[in-house]
Design a protein that fits this description.
This is DmsE family decaheme c-type cytochrome. The chain is mainly alpha-helical and about 350 residues long. The chain folds into three domains: about 55-150, no CATH class; about 165-235, no CATH class; about 255-330, no CATH class. About 35% of the residues lie in helices and about 0% in strands. It has 16 helices and two strands. The chain has a two-stranded antiparallel ribbon with strand order 1-2. The structure holds heme C (10 copies).
């Protein structure tokens, strides 16, 4: 709670600083700024990030690849990069940096991210003379990420270092493009979170096209409802410490407590379900009764041999192949609170 209050306070302070700059700036009214600021507050707040150093503290990024270079200012960049600069104008960073630079001319704009430009302006084709955010730019991947982390470390990015993305040389600009507004919020490289991830994880994205799937293509959720692409303490970049905690966030009724627990449910929902999509009913890993019989293989009731003759149309129809199979009778398969429910019938 104290943590939350601190974060809200930090955000309010940052916002009011911006508003002060905005008000001091002819042509930028407080009203337009509040409207622009709202989505970013929501986005940053929802992700629970800590406050990055605000725009007012922006400094020229350090570029060891051009140690002699000095800053040349935004106007010089625009002279050669008209188009990029126009696209940049309406982004969150441009709004914030321009407001801050008007109030304090020592605040850089382009050079906040790209580093000092004098060497680059003299010899634009020389690789590494400016901080580029592509693999071809000659700027080491680690320096690219570090430049953004100068303002964005902590919070959601607490576990960036050592995360599977960082270790595999994925960098901020694989998912973010701050040079234009391609997405509604989050300055993503593609229109939406899902499309941004699908650039590299097409195999996972197509799992959501299966017969039963989490309602992601329907727009009801996105990859970041369950994963933190910046790194996490759990495995598979899950936002929570275990698979089950992730599932309980939305399927709270499955958490229990139950009088009679079904051991595999407590252990891991993925004993029976796939997280993304499945061609079986209800995201199951395989169909009932085979699903149950993987574990309940004792002789007798749970494990009678099923043949085509056991089908509803066969000579000895068997309940285990009819309706919902085993769960026709063991309906409370996730656990039961009925005094007479130890076999999950009710
Ligand atoms: C004299 C013209 C000129 C000026 C001034 C200039 N640039 Fe460039 N810049 C270029 C050219 C030309 C290229 C393309 C180089 C190439 O294709 O190898 C370029 C490329 C770039 C790239 C891409 C680098 C890469 O390899 O990915 C970035 C980023 C960039 N400039 C940023 C800036 C910034 C920021 C400023 C102001 C500090 C600036 N430029 C000033 C001409 C200029
Ligand atoms: C918040 C950090 C940030 C700021 C501020 C910024 N850029 Fe960029 N810039 C980037 C990133 C990241 C990329 C790589 C985008 C991508 O993935 O292609 C980039 C790419 C570029 C490129 C390469 C061409 C392209 O569009 O990919 C140029 C040129 C460029 N920026 C110029 C500028 C200029 C001029 C300014 C100031 C008006 C500026 N940038 C301000 C982060 C920034
Ligand atoms: C001078 C500090 C500074 C630098 C450097 C910087 N940012 Fe930011 N960035 C900010 C501030 C301040 C905000 C305002 C929102 C916030 O507090 O999160 C912001 C917002 C964002 C957002 C959220 C946008 C939204 O719509 O919610 C993203 C994404 C982002 N930055 C990515 C980057 C990336 C990628 C880089 C490196 C290429 C970068 N930033 C470099 C200061 C910076
Ligand atoms: C694998 C893709 C991916 C990578 C790599 C990535 N991001 Fe993000 N980032 C996202 C997505 C998706 C969101 C939107 C999250 C949301 O809406 O909750 C986001 C949100 C953000 C935000 C705004 C919300 C917040 O957490 O404050 C900032 C700032 C940000 N990223 C900065 C960075 C920086 C800095 C890096 C590099 C160190 C980086 N990101 C690397 C995908 C990525
Ligand atoms: C530029 C390519 C790229 C993008 C974009 C990308 N990833 Fe990844 N991702 C990787 C690589 C490389 C790995 C590590 C190798 C692997 O497991 O495939 C990885 C691994 C993962 C893993 C597995 C982690 C583990 O421990 O097994 C998850 C989960 C993941 N990414 C989620 C996302 C999400 C969510 C997004 C979008 C916000 C995203 N990725 C965007 C390249 C990318
Ligand atoms: C409903 C929650 C949820 C959503 C939404 C979700 N995932 Fe996952 N994802 C998981 C869980 C749970 C795992 C498995 C973790 C394990 O096996 O321990 C996983 C595993 C992964 C893995 C590693 C294993 C593999 O299958 O390759 C990748 C990569 C991945 N997810 C990417 C994505 C991408 C990309 C999206 C969005 C298109 C996405 N996930 C959406 C919950 C989710
Ligand atoms: C962000 C919220 C969210 C998270 C996290 C989440 N789910 Fe779901 N899940 C949903 C929604 C929404 C539906 C669709 C419900 C509907 O259509 O009635 C759904 C549907 C399902 C279904 C029924 C699918 C069908 O075709 O009938 C299963 C099974 C399921 N989820 C299991 C899981 C498991 C296992 C996890 C953890 C890996 C999980 N869910 C995590 C939101 C979530
Ligand atoms: C022992 C196997 C098994 C495990 C483990 C399991 N489930 Fe299920 N689950 C099923 C079966 C079988 C169905 C389909 C029931 C039916 O046909 O009506 C189902 C259906 C569902 C549904 C959709 C119908 C409903 O009851 O709401 C959701 C949501 C769901 N499971 C979530 C979860 C979550 C969350 C976990 C982990 C806490 C979990 N399941 C663990 C077997 C399992
Ligand atoms: C991953 C293994 C696994 C799967 C899959 C599984 N179970 Fe279980 N089940 C167990 C374990 C372990 C127990 C606890 C056994 C004990 O306490 O002796 C159990 C207990 C039960 C019990 C109570 C048994 C008793 O003696 O009280 C019933 C009934 C049951 N399962 C039915 C099902 C049905 C129906 C399915 C398919 C929808 C299913 N199980 C799938 C592992 C599994
Ligand atoms: C027609 C209803 C029905 C169907 C269908 C059914 N069961 Fe049962 N099951 C029962 C009843 C009733 C009991 C309790 C017997 C008792 O208490 O002696 C039971 C008991 C069990 C037990 C506890 C151990 C035992 O042998 O008593 C397990 C495990 C079990 N069932 C698994 C399954 C599996 C797996 C399937 C699907 C292949 C299945 N059941 C299908 C009614 C059913």
């Amino acid at each position: 709670m104290a943590d939350l209050t601190r974060r809200i306070a930090a955000r309010l302070i940052r916002l009011s600083t911006l508003l002060l700059f905005a008000c001091a700036t002819p042509g930028v009214t407080a009203q337009t700024f509040t409207a622009d600021a709202r989505p970013w507050l929501a986005a940053a707040g929802a992700a629970g990030g800590d406050a990055p150093a605000g725009f007012a503290q922006a400094r020229v990024a350090r570029n060891p690849g051009a140690a002699q270079a000095v800053p040349i200012g935004e106007k010089a960049c625009i002279a050669c990069h008209q188009l990029e600069s126009e696209h940049f104008t309406h982004t969150l960073h441009a709004l914030g940096l321009h407001a801050a630079a008007k109030a304090d001319p020592s605040v850089p704009v382009c050079e906040t991210c790209h580093g000092p430009g004098s060497e680059h302006a003299k010899a634009p084709t020389q690789k590494g003379s400016i901080i580029g955010f592509t693999r071809e730019s000659g700027t080491p991947i680690a320096l690219q990420s570090q430049t953004c982390l100068g303002c964005h470390s902590g919070g959601a990015r607490d576990h960036w270092l050592g995360s599977v993305h960082q270790r595999n040389d994925v960098t901020c600009s694989d998912c973010h493009n701050p040079m234009a507004n391609f997405s509604g919020e989050g300055l993503l490289a593609k229109k939406s979170v899902n499309e941004t991830c699908a650039q590299c994880h097409t195999d996972v994205r197509v799992q959501f096209d299966r017969r039963s799937h989490m309602p992601l293509p329907e727009g009801q959720m996105s990859c970041v409802d369950c994963h933190n692409p910046h790194g996490s303490t759990g495995k598979s970049l899950l936002k929570t410490d275990s698979v089950n905690e992730t599932c309980y966030e939305c399927h709270a009724e499955k958490r229990g407590p139950f009088l009679f627990e079904h051991a595999p449910v407590r252990q891991n929902c993925l004993n029976c379900h796939t997280p993304h999509g499945s061609n079986e009913h209800a995201l199951l890993v395989t169909s009932v009764p085979q699903l149950c019989q993987q574990c309940h293989s004792g002789l007798g009731h749970p494990n009678d041999l099923q043949t085509p003759l056991s089908l509803g149309s066969g000579t000895h129809p068997d309940e285990r192949l009819m309706g919902r199979g085993c769960v026709t009778c063991h309906a409370q398969i996730h656990g039961s609170n009925a005094p007479s429910g130890p076999k999950f019938h009710e």
